[in-house]
Design goal:
This protein has 248 residues and is of the alpha+beta class. It has helices at 2-5, 22-45, 47-54, 94-100, 147-150, 154-157, 173-177, 183-207, 209-215, 233-244, and strands at 59-60, 72-73, 78-82, 88-92, 105-108, 114-115, 120-126, 129-134, 139-144, 166-168, 223-224.
Amino acid sequence: MAALGNQATPPPPPAGTAGFPWALTIGIGAVLLLVALFVRAMFRTHKGVNSEDIEMTPALNVETVSSPAGLYYDKTHTWAFMEKDGFVKVGVDDFLQHLTGPLTQVKLKTAGEKVRKGEKIMTVMHDGKQLELYSPVSGPIKEQNQSLLTNPSQINSSPYDAGWVYQIEPSNWIRETHFMFMADKFKAWLDDEFIRLKEFLATSANKNTEVYEHIVLQDGGELTDNVLANLEPEVWEDFQAKFIDESK
């Protein structure tokens, strides 16, 4: 009894916790820690899915449009390049393919047909919606890129290389280049084209409230990539008449 009486008295519990079961507190803390670790592990496992769900559509502006030096660019958004053999390759510029989204079909003229500058030269299509494009040069078609008939999206992935459309024997090359742009002047001209594009889309948005949801990012009015892809055929028809055809 004397020995027991000499033992140190245990410290009192903190104020407001008298009688609280400390073992229970430790148990609850351990459970909360395990839950937090589990949630963290699940987040890491599904991080890719979550990131994909909230990823913004890429912006479309002058800086995202490719324009290699040495090519001539037409106002109707085709390009021309004279090769060493004197023939001219033509195709669709990067600006236009950024608007249409992945092309699903093209309609081409055949080798041997003669075309004139400003004449309809091909049809590009995205899920049944289509645009007519015009030749930047005059002359007989020597060759068409037949691979586009089965893989038209080459125009999207490689508009200036694998996605070329025709090889033409030019009949009035020097004069017709005066109506086209090269890289630096093309970039300057694109500034005006983006202004014109925004004006066109704003007009379309006034007609169709769904248009606006597809064309503008949340951070203040930048255009989104593939801006025409999900819009209705009527918008494509307006774009043909009021944007492409007015540039001829």
